[in-house]
Amino acid sequence: MSRIFTTVSLLCVSNVFMTFAWYGHLRNMSHRPWIIAALASWGIALFEYLLQVPANRIGHTALSLGQLKIIQEVITLTIFIPFSLLFSRVLFTGLPGKHPQCSAECKAAHCRDSRPEDYGARFDPHNSIHCRY
């Protein structure tokens, strides 16, 4: 099996754990004290790191650090958007920024329950594009 395929596969599974660790408690544990949610999230995040660290070590033998980061951001969006729609039931009214540098930062900021004034503008000095996040 190729090192890149192994890396991407491990990062995909790792990202599922990460997404649930970061956001799953908002639906499942909203009635519990935050410390309980934090401890549960840390427990889930352990499995994320048990996959993410080997993925990055394997990937770094074939890819640069920048390539690993870009792959991770693409995977994050690929996992987070279905998670938002299917698990959290958040509908999107728009997509993240169309510019590649904005996309990683904007993520999915334009959700149905978000207000534009909640997000500041970030100036990209290299391309003169304002990102909303």
Quick one: biggest sheet? Answer: 2 strands, antiparallel
Strand order of the largest sheet: 1-2
Large-scale geometry: globular
CA gyration radius, whole angstroms: 16 Å
Number of strands: 2
> What would you call the structural class?
mainly alpha
Helix content: 55-70%
Assembly state: single chain
Low-pLDDT stretches: 104-133
Instruction: Give the number of domains.
Output: 2
Distance between the termini: 38 Å
| Number of helices in the DSSP assignment | 4
Give the averaged pLDDT, no decimals: 77
The helix-strand sequence is HHHHEE
How much of the sequence lies in strands comes to 5-15%
In words, what does this structure look like?
The chain is mainly α. It has two domains: 90 residues; 43 residues, no CATH class. 62% of the residues lie in helices and 6% in strands. It has a two-stranded antiparallel ribbon with strand order 1-2. Helix 1 packs antiparallel against helix 2 and helix 1 packs parallel to helix 3. It is globular.
Secondary structure elements and their pairing?
Layout: H1 3-28, H2 34-59, H3 65-87, H4 100-106, E1 121-124, E2 129-132
Antiparallel strand pairs: 1-2
